[in-house]
Amino acid sequence: MRRAAQRGARAARWALSVVALAGTALAQGPARVTLEQAIDLALTHNHALKALRTQVQQSQAQEVTAGLRPNPVLSWDSQFLPIFQPSQFSADYINVNAQHDLGISYLFELGGKRHWRLQAARDQTAVTRAQIADAERNLSFNVAQQFVGVLLAESNLELAQQDLASFQNTVEISQARYQAGDISEADLLKIKLQLLQFQTDSSSAELAKVQALVGLRQLLGYDAVPADYDVAGELRYQPLRLNLDDLKAKALQQRPDLVAAQRGVTAADSQHRLALANGARDLGTAFNYSHLNALNTGSFFFNIQLPLFDRNQGEIARTQFAQTQAQESAAAASDQVLTDVDDAYQGFRANQKVVELYVSGYLQQAQESRDISEYAYKRGAASLLDFLDAERSYRATQLAYRQALASYMVSLEQLKQAVGTRNLP
């Protein structure tokens, strides 16, 4: 019921996303998708995920196969016909001398084989569903990571364009100062060569955004968004206070890969019970109608194997070891979940501290240093080298800050992936 409700909610979100994208496209031109819309579109349109989901239908078809009963067998024969002496053929010969049999037989499965065969198939379907949910979890993280990559590329492009416009103004002022004799031709050439770096950075940032959008579109599905789509959002810092113990408890409750491992233990138990059931011998029954010597008779036949040698010992032993393997795999999955949450949490905290360092004053200091150097240079109170050095420091600080924001947002998404939910406790 919970999975059905989740699928229904996802379908509703996807429908709302489509309506929102359509409205945005009509109002603003290119479609713009938010992070949550991107994840919903990927969960709906990603072809690799859609291919994986067919495994559930395949497993359900195997349930049908597992629940089938043996078919009854119809047999008939005619014996002692005078094929090599055709002259003997007559109604009396057929009635008196020839023998005719018509029979039906059925194999009764004993030991609860059908029940445990069907239960094992259902348990495997449950494992498959959890594995698909885990694939959805990983796809959601990949989409979020790529989405943040687009935001970073977009932010870097915006910074590069702002710096280029600002430096072009500096070049124009330097040209006027050169004509007025305030600076040398060598300094003017250095300024113009530095402009090439800003132009190159702007082109590189534009290419990085295009490539990031293409990579994101591949995850969403090429039929999910138009070719000229864009993302809606920005790099931003949202301080969060999270409790590690709560995160671990949440992860142990609902991480899909752990759920799959736990359901694997149940599936292994069903396989063992099926192996025990297969050790029971089946009862073969048959009823034959016979016509011989002008008489109509009936016969009953029964057969069952004597389990003197084959009692399915090998498969029973194998499934016992498989039970142990499944239990150990579930324990290992639990340890992996706790490790993932711990690592992701520590990474989140580390990235949070880095962002807070920039916000606490380094950004403002870099901005003020650049502004002071630019003001002083334009009025002849600072050297060209001092100005270029302040410009490079400002740009490096801004790029590092944006990278720190992106790392923080990715680490938050990684923490969500580690816990197994997009709503952290």
Might you state the CATH topology name? Outer membrane efflux proteins (OEP)
Contiguous runs where pLDDT drops below 50 for at least 5 residues: 14-29
Number of strands: 6
End-to-end Cα distance: 23 Å
Query: What proportion strand?
Result: 5-15%
Q: Regarding quaternary structure, how should these chains be classified?
A: single chain
Mean pLDDT: 88
Sheet of most strands: 4 strands, antiparallel
Q: What's the CATH class label?
A: Mainly Alpha
Looking at the overall shape, the CATH architecture is Up-down Bundle
Give an account of the 3D structure.
Helix 2 (35-45) packs across helix 5 (113-180) and helix 7 packs across helix 9. With 425 residues, the protein is an alpha+beta fold. 72% of the residues lie in helices and 10% in strands. The protein has helices at residues 2-28, 35-45, 47-66, 91-96, 113-180, 185-220, 244-254, 256-278, 313-378, 384-419; strands spanning 32-33, 73-79, 99-108, 230-231, 283-292, 295-304. The protein is elongated, with a radius of gyration of 38 Å. It starts with a helix and ends in a 6-residue tail after the last helix. The protein has a single domain (2-419), classed as Outer membrane efflux proteins (OEP) (Up-down Bundle). The model is unreliable at 14-29 (pLDDT under 50).
